[in-house]
Amino acid sequence: MNDVLARCRLLAEATEEPGFITRTFLSEPMHAVHAHLRGWMERAGMSVFTDHAGNLRGLYPSARASSPRLFIGSHLDTVPRAGAFDGVLGVVLGVALIERLDGRRLPFEIEVIGFSEEEGVRFGLPFIGSRALIGDIDDQLLTMIADAIGAFGLVPSRIDEARAADDALGYLEFHIEQGPVLESLDLPLGVVETISGQNRLALLFEGQANHAGTTPMNLRQDALAGAAEWIGAVEREARAVAGAVATVGRVNVSPGASNVIPGSVATSLDVRHAEDAVRHDLVTRLLRCAEQTAADRCLTVSWEQRLDQAAVAMDSILVQMLERAVASSGRPVHRMSSGAGHDAMIVARRMPAAMLFLRSPGGISHHPDESVLAEDVAAALEVGERFLRELEQRHA
Ligand code: HGY
Ligand code: MN
Ligand code: MN
Fold first, then answer.
1. Which CATH class for the 2-196+311-394 domain?
2. Is 3.30.70.360 the CATH classification of the domain at 197-309?
3. Residue 96 needs a FRET pair 20 to 30 A away by CA distance; which of 205, 333, 375, 384 works?
């Protein structure tokens, strides 16, 4: 397991921002991540290729010809100034499980997949890699990302080749919890039951740029003052809904000079809840509030929905298999939901999907202090081996 931690830290050195871990969709440092993983995968007996969505794919053959395929994976991209484990841990753990087979073949294939993009940082659209795996890249998205694909040495028009066959056995994702629950319960692992739904929007508040020194306060159309009033309302409204979270993570002010009244402000909005109806109702209220704030201040506001992702239940059979694997390893079984989004919620549209969470010390993630414990990595590996053993018995 120290190998796993060391490998994740080695991959963390592949960054767009020296001193921090920032690696977005098909950026230059992703080549180094692919090179490292390709070496580990090939030494574990896997044949490796990169599909035209930029997913890195290692295939471990079956003992039988034309047998179904189990996918194990997660994403290789990061948020800006990220931690070293969100995403890559799930891919490195997948390779470690193959290494532990030590050349022994199972009655099914195993593909370890490193998705090219899950966070949605570069183009504001998440899950590009996993959407390609299930054949869900539309022309509009492909047009948006084609140049990035070409610059990485891939061929956009071949992106459909990334699609998984329809007879996939299922998908298993190991991931850090990214929250405080497991640590608060002093548990190493959690079995994910559902993944919360999420909306991601881009809003634009527009007023009138003007001179900061000569424009009286009562004659201003200050786009940033309006956006700020609305952001306060976002926090108030979300606090009032049990189980809801709403975040404005990005604000871009134009023209952005200290002596100019902001003429326009572009913001993000991220809203999540375990129940889709509650989430949609909160989004509607927050957009109405934006309209009212803009009207009160003689501003205009417009928005674009970037993601409306429903909550997703993990596959009950795979969940029970994971629970049996945890229990037979002598560890407490804890079912939980995920506030974070994951590739599993996309892949679940096409095949049975399941996730195993590892404790996040301090509940910290999407931050350089993100970490994972070696003993929890060892636990996850043992549970993964037991999971594969039951799957092997089921397909013997
Ligand atoms: O934002 C999320 O939920 C995940 O970390 N991509
Ligand atoms: Mn993340
Ligand atoms: Mn993640």
1. alpha beta
2. yes
3. 333
